[in-house]
């Protein structure tokens, strides 16, 4: 029973840390999409690493393909120059 309560508490602590980091990323990021995608990718990768360490899960070749695509997408997202939309000048009357 104590182990179950500890695990439930750990879930709440991990979620609180994740939300704290996510809100800081939203504040520091120029785009909410960049913060959301980065957070999702980091959750995916950290879950896989913890699954391997704690439960001995194996990583299939398809998982490696998914990781490569995820990392390439993150690189494209974070290295692309932002597209600025020109704002029309106001007419003076």
TrEMBL record:
Keywords: Membrane, Transmembrane, Transmembrane helix. InterPro entries: EmrE-like, TMEM42. SUPFAM superfamilies: Multidrug resistance efflux transporter EmrE. The chain crosses the membrane at residues 33-55, 62-81. Coiled coil: none annotated. This is Transmembrane protein 42.
């Amino acid at each position: 029973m104590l182990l179950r309560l500890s695990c439930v508490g750990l879930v709440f602590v991990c979620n609180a840390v994740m939300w704290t980091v996510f809100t800081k990323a939203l504040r520091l990021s120029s785009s909410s999409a960049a913060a959301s995608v980065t957070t999702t990718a980091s959750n995916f990768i950290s879950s896989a690493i913890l699954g391997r360490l704690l439960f001995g899960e194996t990583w299939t070749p398809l998982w490696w393909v998914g990781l490569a695509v995820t990392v390439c997408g993150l690189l494209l997202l974070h290295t692309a120059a932002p597209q600025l939309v020109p704002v029309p000048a106001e007419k003076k009357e």
